[in-house]
Structure formats: structure tokens, C-alpha cells
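W.,

You were right to be curious about this one. When I first looked at the sequence I had no strong expectations either way, so I just let the prediction run and decided to look at it fresh. Below is the sequence, 423 residues in total, followed by the output.
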Amino acid sequence: MLDFSQRLRLFSRDVWLYLITPALIGFTIFGGIYTVLLNLYLLRLGYTPSFVGLVNAAGFATLAVTALPTGAVGRKIGVRRAMILGMLLIMAGCGLLPMAEFIPVGLRQGWLLVMYAVIQLGMTLHIVNSQPFLMDATTPVERSHVFSVQVALWPLAGFVGSMIGGLLPGLLAPLLGIGLEDAAPYRYTLLLAAVMVLPGVWALMQIPEPKPTHRTILAGGVSANTPLLLITLLAAISYLRGGGEGVGRTFFNIYLDEQLGIPTAQIGSLFAFAQLLAVPSALLAPTLVHRWGKERIILWGTFGVALSLLPMAFIADWRAIAVGMLGILVLTSVSRGPLMIYMQEVVDPQWRPLVAGATTMTFGLSWFTTALSGGYIIAAFGYRELFLFGALLNVAGGFLLWGFLAAHQRRQLSGSVVGAGDR
């Protein structure tokens, strides 16, 4: 704790201002209000789990398709301006999506798909450009702690957002004279997310555009000496690692609501407390990395998510779902920061924006495929097979990561110096 407090003093003003944005994103859409209520809102509008999966898939497809172009946007207009644009798009999407009830029925599905895609486009602009921003805004001394604090802020703010998201519909329903089977209480709570994004725009506007320490690469992001094999392997690892988390985050609340009949407030509370317990694990990441190394932490997190899905698959009880989600959130929190740093450090600085875009793209593609196929897997086989499918993806990702780390370590031990064109 003493070491952590000393490292916090090294954080620059720009880093502290930036950290406001992941807190707001966690509160609203990455673990907070939207994570708890979006699926339930869609169910209250009368849609089936298959369409719910399609909406989620549309968002993740946007993440996958736009990850590389948003990296190019950051290089064109600057990473700070790109993050501001991302926050504005998040705010617009969060405000317009709950207006679906006032859209003609024939256009409503398209409206929901497009607005959720707008939210995810904003997320992509922020995530892809935040990684090179933090690499430029930090030194190796405090970098691990900055990434850990960022990762911890998502579940911490998500805890507050989940609690509010779970409780507000129940408080609003009596005031509106309706029941929780109606969509209106969920609509007003979702609108709160749009308002809460605005301070993040202000925070980013106080930061000067950073001067990158890496050389600018071609606008398309690819040149003759691009380390394509290395980036492809990192992207494949990101895809497989994202599968288990995507399944858990997308379908846990549908399972609790539709199959087990758990009240909305309890669903929100379960997810909120799981996120709260994920906070110390993220903050412990630098200590664990110092003791065991980034590689082991990333591996343990990958295989651990697969294990966490097993009680969700085989025990039809809300406590098993809670334990499984707790495992997923804790293990992804403790390994996400080390993974982001590792993937940025394993390439030359000039390729960091491209790596961030490629790995974000495949992470979004992973969540897209699990969300899109998940509804159909549920309809054809059931929730058990869905959770096992997610676990299988993580196991495959763990073995691919294991082989990659072993090969990279052998090259380091051999004393070979690998240039960007040879990677």
C-alpha cells in the first residue's frame, strides 16, 4: 500500500483528468447502468433473447469493424480529440436509444441496432486511443499502476452504476403508477447514463494534445515492415480471451431474469457487488506482476475465466451465477491491465496504435460472435451449452497465449534482438 500511494503521487495532472473518463464509462455502459438494464429493457419491449443477442452483437460488430479506422482517426486528429469525439458519441447514443418507444414499430428494431452501434463506436474511439495516450503520458515507473487504476475504476464505478441501475426502476415504477413489467422505468434510468457522460467530455478538454513519443506510421497503419505475424497472433489471443467474458457479461442477466425469475434489484445488486470485489484485484495487479510476472498473471486470468463459467453451466442457482460472474470480473480485472501493457511493450513504439486497434477489433469481434450466436445456442440447446462454449474459447486462448509467451521468452533468452520488420 505504501508503494502504491507513492506511485500515485507520480501520476500527472493529465493522467488524473483522463481517469475521470473510464470511471464514467464504467458507471454508464461498461459494467454499470446499461450492462444491468439494456437487456431487461429490450425484454420489456417484447423482444426475445435472440433479438437481445442481435442488439449486443451489433454493438460488438461495430467495435470490431471500426477499431482499426478509429486508430487512424487518432493519428489524424490526435488521440485526445478522438477520445472527446468518442465520449460525445457515447452520450448521444445513450440518450437516443431509450427513445425507441416513440419510434414507429416498423422502424424500432433498426433504431435500437443503430443507436447501440453509435454507443460502441464511441467506446471504440475512446479505448483504442486511450492506450497510446497512456503510454505517452506515463513513464515505466508508474505505468503499471496507472493501467491498474484505470482497470479498477471500471468495476468500481460499475458497482455504483449497477446499484443505481438495479434500484431506480423499482423506485420509479410506483411514481409513474406502473409495474416493473413496463418499459418506462427502465427508459428513464437509461437516460441517466447519457447525462453522466458529459463530465468526461469536460475533463478531456482540459488536457493538451500529447506529443507522441513514437514515430508516425502510414495513415492506413500498414507498411512493408509491419510486424503482421506478431500483430495477428496478439489479435487472435485477444479474440479467444474475450469469448468467456463476452458470454458471461451478455447473458448473465437474461438467464437470471428469464430462467430463474430473479428480481431486477437483486440482479443489479449481484453484479454490483461482483464488480466491487473486482476492484482490489485490479489494484493488486502491479504487486502480483512484480512477484510472478505479467505472463503468469495473464495466463491465470485466461484459464480462470473458463473455470468460472463451469458453475454457471452446471448449477441452476442464482448463487452459482453470482460466483461465476465474480470469478469472471475478478480475473479479467487482475489480468486486463498487464495484458494491455504487455501487448503495447512487445512491439516497437511506432506500432502501438495499430496493436491497440487490432486487439480491440478482435475483442469486439469475439463479443459479436458470442452475442449473435448466443441467442441461437440458447434456443437450440440451452444456457449450459452457451456457457460451455464461452469456456472453450478461453481454454483455446489460454493455450495459444501459452505457446506465444514460451516462444517469445525463448527468443529473449537467446539474446536475439528482434527488429520491427522481423517480428
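Here's what jumped out at me. The chain has 15 helices and no strands. And, maybe more interesting for your project: The chain has one domain: 2-206+225-413.

Coffee later to discuss?

I.
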